[in-house]
Amino acid sequence: MQRSILALVVAGLAFGSLASARAGVETYEIDPMHTWVGFTVAHFFTKVPGFFSKVKGTFVVDRDHLENSTAAAVIEVASLTTNTRQRDDDLRSTNFFAAAKFPAMSFKSKAWKSTGDDAYAVAGDLTIKSVTKEVVLKVPHSKGLNTRIYCFRKEWKKP
What we know:
5% helix
């Protein structure tokens, strides 16, 4: 299995439990039954898809004061599957995610900005294997999130 590229794709995070604490503020819990956090891994001349089945988190959107908006998500690394046990075990091993040592990856927002094209640019920290990198998610104004983050495995190597 080629070990040079790993692309993490966050697609279709669905939100449930809409709760408005005050006007203009919306709080969403990630709905694990309607959420898909996928990835691809390079394998020779093809890209093999997989996904993480356990994700949780909360998004708070204050449309009137975006600086008060927050997003946080945690993905359980051991929940990954590509539907091939040998490959899944390799991805969980120290060759890739080292799931036993680093059981979760996380995202925590730092800043929200309206991009004017019916979306927000949400800057935040993505932590994989205790290595944190800033990423920017394009989040639609509607309920739900469909975005991609490309992560190259060598960028998350623990020294």
